[in-house]
Amino acid sequence: MSSTSPLPTQAEIDDESRRIRHLRIIVNLSLSLIAQGEMRYEEAQELAASAKRLAEDLFPDKGHVFELLYRPQFRRMINDVYRLQ
């Protein structure tokens, strides 16, 4: 069995790891800021949208992954903080 795509180089692996860490930091920071409950609902929504834009910039064509992994966390946090159902 041969692979149709070459194995990634160490530099590519390191770059992807760096981008993943960057995204996780931004998502965690954003969720923490929302959890404080000191911003308006609209600001919390914009913060979540900004995190998604960053994810799409870091990982083009992978917006669906953000929707699966992070959107539910943002939705839950915003619903909890702003008492939405």
Tell me what you see in this structure.
The longest helix has 26 residues. The termini are far apart. With 85 residues, the protein is mainly alpha-helical. The model has no long low-confidence stretch (mean pLDDT 94). Helix content is 73%, strand content 0%. It is built from 4 helices and no strands. Helix 1 packs antiparallel against helix 2. The protein is elongated, with a radius of gyration of 16 Å.
Topology, please?
Blueprint: H1 10-35, H2 41-58, H3 63-69, H4 71-81
Helix content: over 70%
Beta percentage is: under 5%
Principal-axis shape: elongated
Characterize the main sheet: none
Low-confidence stretches: none
How many strands?
A: 0
Rg estimate, integer Å = 16 Å
Structural classification:
mainly alpha
The count of helical stretches stands at 4
Q: Report the end-to-end length measured between terminal Cα atoms.
A: 51 Å
Q: What series of H and E elements makes up the topology? A: HHHH
Oligomer kind = single chain
- Chain-averaged pLDDT: 94
Please tag this protein with its features.
single chain, 85 residues, mainly alpha, elongated
